[in-house]
Give the backbone structure.
Amino acid sequence: MTGTHVAATLASSGTNFTPIGIIGAIFIPICAAIAVIVYSYYQLQGHRADAVAMASYRKLAEEAVANMTELRAEMTKLAAHVSAVEQIMRDVG
């Protein structure tokens, strides 16, 4: 049976397609809207998780910079002490 035969058979049996069309016209957009809302919600949750991770990385980077500054200060002190020891060794030797 082809599509024409099916339509002719349904039409001859008195099938009214108007309620089916109305239900489809209401049901399909509602389902599409729900699908878009659900997709947008999960996409938003993903962005929130990324923002939390980026905040953690930002904090870690700030701590690393602070630690590097402290380390650089300590290295400067150590270099001064090493210079003093080298000067003493030169004076003695």
About this structure: The chain has one domain: 15-92.
